[in-house]
Amino acid sequence: MKIKVIAFDADDTLWDCQSHFAEVERQYAMMLAPYGDMEYITQELFKVETANMPELGYGCKAFILSLIENAVKVSKGRIAADKLLEILSLGRTLLRLPATPLPEVEETLRTLHQQHRYQLVAFTKGELQDQVNKLQRSGLSPYFDDVIVVEEKSVEAYQHLCSRMGICFSDLLSVGNSFKSDIEPVLLSGGYAVHIPFAYIWAYERTKEYTHERLHTITRFGELLPLLEP
Hints:
By secondary structure, this protein is of the alpha/beta class.
């Protein structure tokens, strides 16, 4: 690999995010227990989230709106205002999740930053302010040369990334937990990818995975360094 730029996903790659969403969903389903069991409530929530994505995109704020909309929907409008306020308060806890770096993340980023061999970019999707806030709370900001937040990690989004950094696709390495968002678009475009599966995966990110000559799969973030040795 003749890499010039490494693009790192953020949520569930640099820090734990999805487990916090899963916990909020669990508590949310308990709050709505009078209107259905946990499976029904979460399935209906996912339908609302998916329908809202074209207008609201990803992130905590979009998720909170979906929580409220779904509560009204499954209760057929019978849910009380004070219960909606409880749901709002529950959802807002996600705006303050700790963003504590996962094991080996900070040490690896520090080493790569000190080597000055690559440009390091935090390349993530979601709501701009929320993602920037999480990066600041994580303490990882000093290791990145750029931070880019996009609405969707499509082939076009990666093309814009390469244009912004002044590189070709073959100069790009994407590192992330989502095969659908972090891996496949880059492989389709001629770039390289390192897949680091996470314990939790959002239903929307599930897709068929496969092997590829320009793809490496690792189990620990620290395994990235040996892959990049000259």
